[in-house]
User: Fold this.
Amino acid sequence: MSEQHETFIAHLIELRDRLMRALVVIVVIFVCLMPWAGDIYDLLALPMMDTLPEGTNMIATGVVTPFFVPVKVTLLVSFVLALPWVLYQAWAFIAPGLYAHEKRLALPLVLGSTLLFIAGMAFCYFFVFRMVFSFIAEFAPKSIVPAPDIEQYLGFVMSMFLAFGITFEVPVAVILLVKAGVVDIAKLKEIRPYVIVGAFVIAAIVTPPDVISQLMLAIPMCLLYELGIFLARMIGKPAAEAAGAEYVPPSIEDMDRELDRIEAGERDGR
Assistant:
């Protein structure tokens, strides 16, 4: 067996071990949270429940839905709580193959992207849901009594969490594009109008057909794009200054002086 093949097998074994360690922590947290699965789902459903008419509850149309939906929510919460450990395992796997300057950039980006994704979910839960559900409740005719299905509600919540979590990753994407040399700061400023239009188009596609949710996704996307440009400029400033310093070759006098110094040192050494 060649050395290259043995190295590949060793990397696969290490990857398996890292995945198993991450999975074990997720399962342990999930088992610990299972007794409170119903309470966890009630907490997730709180923004919707606050906007329903008094005495109205959500419904479950499936036979096993009242069991499986809280289990899915608890599993999601377990993954979010274990996310620092999962990311540490991913970092421990890829770190040995990175250069020192790549490690200095990769670790802040991993931590920053995690915090931004969680911030996007929190923004969606505490602000977007309440405003969207209140808007829908006020707009609905008085002759309709809303009774949302819990499985459809979970699907809606998951899609919104994913949309806002990915949206909050815009600064990380901008920094990576600049560091990779795909675009520069001047180009990012130039395409700003197209980014604004694209943000509203994306918001219209991934959010419900109401103005509130679309604005609350598009506006943060535009602001985070500006934040990404600012951070990319701050991170890339030392490198840009170093690259901008032109190389000045030594003069003949400087070279002669250096040769004399070297020859004098050799004579002293003898």
